[in-house]
Design brief:
CATH class: Mainly Alpha
Structural class: mainly alpha
Largest sheet: none
Bound molecules: heme C
CATH architecture: Up-down Bundle
Oligomer: single chain
Length: 153
């Protein structure tokens, strides 16, 4: 192996190591919600065709969604004040029901999985009715400020 090839090979190793070491890109509430949506839609599809394994996979994705970044939690808490508790309870409700759906799917208990799914969906929609617009506004206002401060002009 000549020197050039050795250097190229070394660079490859170093770049791969760097890529592996760098933390996963940070998520945000909108991205978390988009994943919840994908899992909720595929869960309905799986329930309709009695694919319990796929129901469990989707339920697991919902139950273990990444946490909301701390900076966004602070903004939401500032906006909602004491109502933050209710906001968290909606999140907890959806979480608990997704775990229950996962257990029902493992037991192939279709009736329980469907009843829990309907309750979970109510939880999603109830939180949206109460807080989606308000929270979205606060978070997008900050996105705008960050975009502007990155603007060289
Ligand atoms: C604790 C409250 C809460 C719960 C529970 C909740 N959401 Fe949301 N959701 C929000 C908020 C707040 C936003 C607005 C986020 C933003 O605009 O940054 C949102 C936005 C969304 C969006 C729009 C994302 C976009 O691209 O604009 C979808 C889709 C969504 N949620 C799906 C779901 C599903 C599915 C569930 C249940 C499995 C769920 N949400 C449960 C609060 C909640």
């Amino acid at each position: 192996m000549n020197l050039q090839k050795s250097i190229a090979a070394l660079a490859c190793v170093v770049l791969t190591a760097l890529a592996l070491a760098s933390p996963a890109p940070e998520t945000d509430l909108k991205k978390i919600m988009q994943d919840l949506r994908n899992n909720t839609v595929s869960m309905l599809d799986a329930l309709l065709i009695d694919d319990f394994a796929a129901v469990a996979v989707a339920a697991n994705g919902i139950a273990h969604h990444p946490s909301i970044p701390a900076a966004q939690v602070q903004l939401v808490a500032k906006e909602l004040g004491p109502e933050m508790l209710a906001f968290k309870q909606f999140d907890q409700q959806v979480h608990d029901l997704s775990l229950s759906i996962m257990a029902a799917a493992k037991e192939q208990d279709r009736a329980r999985a469907i009843a829990d799914y309907q309750h979970m969906l109510n939880g999603c929609l109830a939180c949206h009715a109460a807080y989606k617009e308000r929270v979205s506004k606060v978070l997008s206002a900050v996105d705008d400020i960050e975009t502007r401060s990155n603007d060289p002009l």
